[in-house]
Design brief:
This is 7872_t:CDS:1. The protein is 95% helix and 0% strand. It is mainly alpha-helical.
C-alpha cells in the first residue's frame, strides 16, 4: 500500500510546485506591468 501512495504524493508535490511557480510568474508579470504603468505616469 505504501508503494502505491508514494507516486501519488510525488505527483501532488509536483502539481503544487507547478501551481506555485505559475502564481510566482503571475505576480512577477503583475509587478512588471505596475512598474511600466508607473513609468508611463511619470
Amino acid at each position: 500500500n505504501n508503494n502505491n501512495q508514494t507516486p501519488s504524493n510525488t505527483e501532488k508535490d509536483n502539481t503544487t510546485n507547478t501551481f506555485n511557480m505559475k502564481i510566482d510568474n503571475v505576480t512577477f508579470l503583475t509587478s512588471n506591468f505596475t512598474e511600466k504603468v508607473q513609468n508611463v505616469s511619470l
